[in-house]
Amino acid sequence: MEIARQTAGGQHRIAGATRPRSALIDVGKGLGILLVVLGHNPWFGDHLPWLDELIGTFRLPLFFFLAGVTFPAGRGVAETARRRADALLKPYAVVVLAYALTHAGRPDITVESTLLALVYATGFTLVWVPMWFLPHLWLISVGAAAYLRWLSPWLRSAGARAAVLAVMAAAGAAVIRRFHNPVDDAACMHHVRFSADLLACGLPFSADVALLSGFFFLAGHHLKSGVWRFKLTPWRLAMAALVFTTLWFGFHQTLNFNFRSYGHGLITPVQALAAIYLVLALCQAMARWEWLRRLLAHAGRSSLFILMFHSPVQSKVLGWLLRWHLPGALSMVLAFAAAVGASIALWELVRRQPVLSRLLLPSPHASPPPSWGARTQP
Fold first, then answer.
1. Which residue range forms the structural domain that includes residue 244?
2. Is 201 part of any domain?
3. How many structural domains compose the chain?
């Protein structure tokens, strides 16, 4: 039986384990995935658009940032590609194929549409859109391994690393604007066939977003020592709050990687980093309540399944509840809870079934997905 023992600095060490666990990161990952589910709730987006936009400024940047914090340095590019493929691409492919087999009667589910979802793997080629995150995370993990192996050794100062990240942010903002988004071009909403039009909406594995997501991923990796030893100070909290509120109310910069929507090349990442600091401060406060820490940590550990399965559950439950004329806010909360609860229940079931576990979870030799359970300390 595993026994968690709390140590100084808010970390928990599992008896018999060699890796410490950070309560802050556990809570951050759990809170992050819950915000993703909330952001995909139709009622929430329709009735609280200002709050949805505000959360959207840091929701995915937080995920990529924490993925970078837990990303292990020193691993080769080929090994990273293999391990991350087992942890990310394998469950992605299994779910896409399973969906195609169980919905074979639908006119939009064909061999071509399934192959498109497997090899192009973007939000506009998927029925369950949030799954685009898995192949994209594999891509930037491999890219990060290449960066750390071949470029990072030449960047001997924090200033040099910051300069490289600034170039990535500026270049990424320029690249993403060259692609269409479904708000302006309805053809980018859902593709079911291979065509040249795909390239107008985005590149395979959302590679056109990689410079921007990679910016937050590498920022998290370079700042991981500070995150693991996170210590809230009033002046930093005040500065982060001032920066975020000034930029948000002054410029109102939003981002949506899946929609290829991104604000100013400099203001948007600074705004997101300030928000990430505020979220980490909130997570540190939340981690002081044992029951809340355990709840969010459990959501964080099962967030691969929450990410894959929350969207259809939430949409169906919300539609059913609204047909019963329940209050919208109550329907939203119940649908949110059902999506999270059903996904966690499925995760618990799969991890206890050897065959399903081999299909949907990382093999014993492979590292877990970087945002879902890696416990490495610098």
1. 4-360
2. yes
3. 1
Three-state DSSP string of the chain? CCCEEECHHHEEEECCCCCEEEHHHHHHHHHHHHHHHHHCCHHHHHHCHHHHHHHHCCHHHHHHHHHHHCCCCCCCHHHHHHHHHHHHHHHHHHHHHHHHHHCCCCCCCCHHHHHHHHHCCCHHHCCCHHHHHHHHHHHHHHHHHHHHHHHHHHCCCHHHHHHHHHHHHHHHHHHHCCCCCCCCCHHHCCCCCCCCCHHHHCCHHHHHHHHHHHHHHHHHHHCHHHHHCCCCCHHHHHHHHHHHHHHHHHHCCCEECCCCEECCCCHHHHHHHHHHHHHHHHHHHHCCCHHHHHHHHHHHHCHHHHHHHHHHHHHHHHHHHHHCCCCHHHHHHHHHHHHHHHHHHHHHHHHCCHHHHHHHCCCCCCCCCCCCCCCCCC
For the segment 340-359, what is each residue's pLDDT rounded down to a tens digit? Answer: 999 999 999 999 999 999 99
- pTM for the model stands at 0.90
pLDDT tens, position by position, 367-376: 555 544 444 3
In a domain, 229, yes or no: yes
- Name the residue with tokens 């991350």: 84
Whether 376 is covered by a domain: the verdict is no
Q: For residue range 171-183, list pLDDT tens digits in order.
A: 999 999 999 999 8
- Asked if residue 285 is part of any domain, the answer here is yes
